[in-house]
Amino acid sequence: MRQAGRYMSEYRSLRERHSLLDLCRTPDLATEVTLQPIRRIEVDAAILFSDLLLPLEPLGIRFDFIKGEGPAIDNPLRSEADLAGIRRFEPRAELGYVLEAIRQIKGALAGRVPLIGFAGAPFTLASYAIEGGHSTSFAHTKSLMYGHPAAWHRFCDTLADVIGDYLVAQIEAGVDVVQVFDSWVGALNTSDYREFILPHTKKIFDHVAACRAGAAGEGGPGVPTIHFGVGTGSILGDLRDAGGDVIGADWRTPLDVAWERIGADRAIQGNLDPTLLLGPLDRVFAATDDVLARADGRAGHIFNLGHGILPTTPLEHVQALARYVHQKTRQ
Predict the structure, then answer these.
(1) Are 141 and 131 within 8 A, CB to CB?
(2) pTM passes above 0.90
(3) Among 8, 28, 188, 309, which residue has the fewest nearby CB atoms (within 10 Å)?
(4) CB 314 within 8 A of CB 277
């Protein structure tokens, strides 16, 4: 979960000289940042260094990252006309720098670990575009969603088309797994999720699955899919219905309970609270033991944090956690 970041001195050194968008848009730099955690932490996969908001700009939604505040949209979408004004684009042309980074990273990894690509899901991308940045209430987003449902569905359908193509392009470039992040979808209840979001997220996973089936028919490898959200304990079954070979669960729901809601035929990713890494290691290890006990040795558990590593996390705690999980699971 967001392996590279401000908790690593190597990353902070690069950020002193380059903006976040420069890191994302420069394949050599994105490759270096992707590899930094692999050199220092015993993780079992690399995660492409990129940002889920990158598809917004070619849609016509300009943004930048404000120091200490996060992403800020220059022109938030606040009306039915705004939603209709976005333009479709070809990810292989407009986001080619991401695909070039993938090719470079795969070459640098040389098969050491697989590479995970990713993209944002419709609700999370829409909420950033409409709210103008992070939100706690998602008032503008829900106002458009409830008040102009037809325009909302057309907008999300466009997002689904673009993101589906973007993920397939990442697979073509060489990623081994793709993950769909719906970081803010926990703001919705089951009824709203199924009405306003599920059809569009499902369209993304269906598109990836169709391309995967075509590749398998040609002798190509299958590419697994991960579906992740935050605060989704009450809608885990709905996320499963939307798609994903692996469903992510954050720390708010015990792993065994989450897996029961998801279904035993799907794998699960999770679910240690990332703030535990700020505390003493004995507490980290005790919480890790609880997660592993709830997994109970069943196949299909990817041990992971329930969300991203926080900037003030000691690197040695992350290193110790990875070593501990490997030690315990090898037993």
Answers:
(1) yes
(2) yes
(3) 28
(4) yes
Look-up: residue for tokens 């392009």? 169
Question: Two tokens at 282?
Answer: 């004995």
pLDDT band at 70 (very low <50, low <70, confident <90, very high): confident
Q: List, as one string, the DSSP characters of 262-273.
A: H-TTSEEEEEE-
User: What's the pLDDT at 217?
Assistant: 60
Show the tokens assigned to 279: 């505390």
What is residue 120's DSSP assignment? E
CATH number for the segment(s) 9-248: 3.20.20.210
Alpha-carbon distances, residue 27 vs 67, 102, 181 (angstroms): 23, 8, 22
Q: Tell me, what amino acid is at 222? A: G
CA dist 330 → 37, 152, 269, 324, 325 (Å): 22, 48, 18, 10, 8
Instruction: List the domain boundaries for the chain.
Output: 9-248
Q: Which residues are catalytic?
A: 2, 6, 15, 51, 128
Q: Is 71 helix (H, G, I), strand (E, B) or coil?
A: strand
Nearest CA to 300 out of 236, 249, 232, 251 is that of 249
CB-count exposure of residue 327 (10 Å: 0-12, 13-18, 19+): exposed
Q: Taking residues 159-186, report their average pLDDT.
A: 97
Give 167's contacts (C-beta < 8 A, 6+ positions apart): 117, 119, 178, 180, 204, 207, 208
Which pLDDT does position 66 carry in this prediction? 85
Helix axis angle, 315-330 to 281-295, nearest 10°: 40
Does the pLDDT of residue 110 top 70, yes or no? yes
Q: Is residue 174 within 8 Å of 131, Cβ to Cβ?
A: no
What is the full DSSP assignment across 160-189? HHHHHHHHHHHHHHT-SEEEEEETTGGGS-
